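Side project, low priority. Logging it here so it doesn't get lost.
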Amino acid sequence: MVSRTFLYVIKQNKLVLFLALVAFIIVILLDVVFANTKEIFKGGFELSKIISNLSMSIVAGYIFYIMTSVKIEVDRINKSKEIATKVVIAIRNHTISMFRVLAESPHEKFRTFPSEDELSNYLVGKTFVSTVKGTRYIDVAGLVSERDLHFFLFNDFPKKAMSLQASLSIYLGFLDQDMQVAFYKHFNSNFFDNFNDSTVAIVLKGRNNKVSDFSTSFFVLRETTLELINSYERVYGTLDK
C-alpha cells in the first residue's frame, strides 16, 4: 500500500509527474495498443520508435528519481513524524483546553473541534468578569481560588501558549514547510493580537464587556489550529486522537 507521505512527496513536483504519466501512456499506446498497426505515412514506424524510446527514457528517469530523491525526502519526513506529532498534539490540546473552559466542561474530552456555532454558544452570556468551572485554581498550599475569564483569557491561556511556542520552536526546522507556515499563522493570529496585548487587558480588566465581542478572534484560533492539523494530515496521515 502506498503511504500518504510518499504520495505527498510525489505531488510536490506535479510537472515531472505529469510528464512521466504522459510518457508512460505513449509507451503503452505505441508498443502495445498500436504495435501491429501499419504505418500511416512513410517513415512513421521509425518516428514512432524514436518517440517510444524517448518516452521510455523519461519513464526510466522518473523511476530513478523516485528511487533516489523521492525516497530520501520520504525518509526525512518519516523521521520527523514523531517531532511533528508532538508539536501538533501539544497545540491542539492547548486550544481544546480553552474550549472546554468556555463550554464549562473543563474535564470533558472533546472528540471533535466545536463548530463556529457551538463556539458562539459557549460565549453567550459570558463577560470578562464571569467565573466558570475552568477558572478555579489550586495553589501549592492546596487553596482554591476562583478567577474570572479576564484572568484566564489574558493571563493564563496566552502565557501558556507563548511558553508552548518557545518550547516547540526548536523543532520547526524538522517540519514540512506547510506546517511551519501553519505554526506561525497560529501564534501570530488575531486571537493572540488581542489577548496577548497588555493594553487591551488593562482596558477590559474588571469590566462587564461581552466575551462574544471577540468571537472572530476565537474563530480564527479555531481555524489556525485546524489548519495546522490539516497540514500535518496531508503529510503523515490521520493525527491520533
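Brief comment: The chain has nine helices and two strands.
Revisit when time allows.
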